[in-house]
Write a structure and sequence with these properties.
Chain lengths: 308, 165
């Protein structure tokens, strides 16, 4: 009986259906704000849904000589991982006692999966441009994971727990110096994790013409797009949970409103960054993340250790 | 109007297949995609990979070697898709008519669904043509040629023999 309930939660709320709808709406916000920045009208509200629906009626082309099984399974892997991650997050937000000890570590691993699935899919497609995109994705992942995990350590040290339920109810770490530094690091890493400008070199439209996803068409491409949209929704939620914990938990409607506003600010920041920066090269990105960003993250962790 | 056509016409990803055009048509196509004309209002975006394409815009002519490659590119497009010929070149060959290195106009060996006449057509003309194509698809007057069962005469490949020129 209980397992049936979990399956329903996975498929509908707060799993696949909820996250997909929220993610597509977020991607509409992204496109609309981009359009407004460029002084044009932009797509209608339901455009992301139409895009996904259209991809489901298209033919699925599989590249000759590619690893077909892996090619078709990779998008499912990413979609399942981001759904699970969102589910863990939202169960925490709905009921702080519902989660288990160590779910933060599971979450970090799950959020690596979408990048991994893009990488596997691109290598399986046996296309030279896709392989280039895939290898850039790997390098980018190696670059941002180190500072991201260091920065996530800060709220963990403050709350003295690795359970999301405790992090949500603890005092918001962002009121400390170390919390602010870690939040800045996390915003930079989020931009790279979502592979949007300035860190979108795996998909570089102009030089790799679609990059890692170049060979994908039809439903598998739809799943990748859905995964991306869901990540765009989930990553800011994670940051809100980690850094604004105490503010967004508790009874009444006020924490929910504050949480939504904070989430929106984070999304808007991402979009504005995307529209005002050029794409950097992969070596510049690695240097950026392993140099200044990692140092700041380390400093934040040490400060948190000292109780700042 | 069936679901397939409805889904297709609401979200069209455009791929630009530039042949040996005199480049004016290519510039007008890019013009039509700039923020001024804002084609994203209709859900149209430019894509970089033919696998993501729903509409292929063909401009200019193809010489004998390029024609074979162009046919290959069209064969890689996931169905259903539309092919639009931009300018007079894909229809007739226009000023390249007497060139030594070409064989036939693209309309002879490609399944082109609609032509946008002009040399070059204005961005407004391209947008008007796309709107007419969408209306035609929705009313059933136009069926994507890639979905028709019988192989169109356009499926015949260009002869490789002429490569010796
Ligand atoms: S139709 Fe005219 S403008 Fe367009 S490519 Fe041909 S010659 Fe150039």
């Amino acid at each position: 009986m209980k397992s049936n309930l979990v399956l329903l939660e996975f498929l509908f709320f707060p799993g696949l259906l909820f996250t997909a709808v929220a993610g597509l709406l977020t991607s509409w916000v992204d496109r609309k704000v981009t359009a407004l920045v460029q002084m044009r009208v932009g797509p209608p509200l339901l455009q992301p849904f139409h895009d996904i629906r259209k991809l489901f009626i298209k033919e699925t082309c599989v590249p000759e000589g590619g690893a077909i099984g892996l090619f078709l399974l990779a998008p499912l892997l990413g979609l399942a991982a981001v759904t699970l991650a969102s589910m863990i997050l939202w169960r925490t937000l709905l009921d702080v006692e519902a989660t288990f000890v160590g779910d933060l570590i599971v979450l970090i691993y799950l959020l690596v999966m979408p990048a991994l699935s893009v990488m596997l899919g691109s290598f399986a497609s046996r296309n030279p441009l896709a392989s280039l995109g895939g290898s850039r994705e790997v390098k980018l992942m190696i670059a941002y994971e180190l500072p991201l995990v260091l920065a996530i350590l800060v709220p963990v040290i403050h709350a003295n727990s690795i359970r999301l339920g405790d992090l949500v109810t603890a005092n918001a770490p962002v009121f400390n110096l170390s919390g602010v530094l870690a939040l800045l690091v996390c915003i930079a890493c989020m931009q790279a994790k979502l592979t949007i400008v300035p860190f979108d070199m795996p998909e570089a439209e102009t030089e790799l013409s679609g990059g890692a996803l170049i060979e994908y068409s039809g439903p598998p491409l739809a799943m990748f797009k859905l995964t991306r949209a869901m990540m765009l929704f989930t990553m800011p939620v994670l940051l809100v949970v980690l850094f604004f914990g105490g503010l967004v938990s508790g009874p009444g409607w006020l924490p929910a409103v504050i949480g939504f506003l904070l989430w929106f600010v984070l999304v808007a920041l991402t979009i504005v960054l995307r529209n005002t920066t050029p794409r950097v090269r992969i070596d510049q990105a690695v240097r950026f993340f392993w140099g200044p960003v990692s140092l700041v993250a380390l400093l934040a962790a040490v400060l948190a250790w000292l109780g700042w | 109007m069936n679901g397939t056509i409805n889904a297709l016409t609401r979200s069209m990803n455009v791929f630009h297949l530039a042949g040996s055009a005199c480049n004016n048509c290519d510039i007008e196509i890019l013009d039509a995609l700039t923020p001024k004309y804002d084609l994203e209002r209709f859900g149209m975006t430019l894509v970089g990979s033919i696998r993501h394409a729903d509409v292929v815009l063909v401009s200019g002519i193809f010489n004998r070697k390029a024609a074979i490659r162009a046919q290959e590119v069209l064969a890689q497009t996931p169905k259903p898709y539309l092919v639009l010929g931009i300018g007079a070149c894909p229809c007739t060959g226009l000023m390249f008519r007497d060139s030594y290195n070409w064989d036939r106009p693209p309309s002879d060996y490609m399944n082109i669904d609609a032509f946008v006449p002009g040399c070059p057509p204005k961005p407004e003309a391209i947008i008007a043509a796309v709107v007419k194509v969408i209306e035609g698809l929705r009313s059933g007057a136009l069926v994507p040629r890639c979905l028709l069962e019988e192989p169109a005469p356009a499926d015949t490949p260009v002869t490789e023999a002429a490569d010796t020129v």
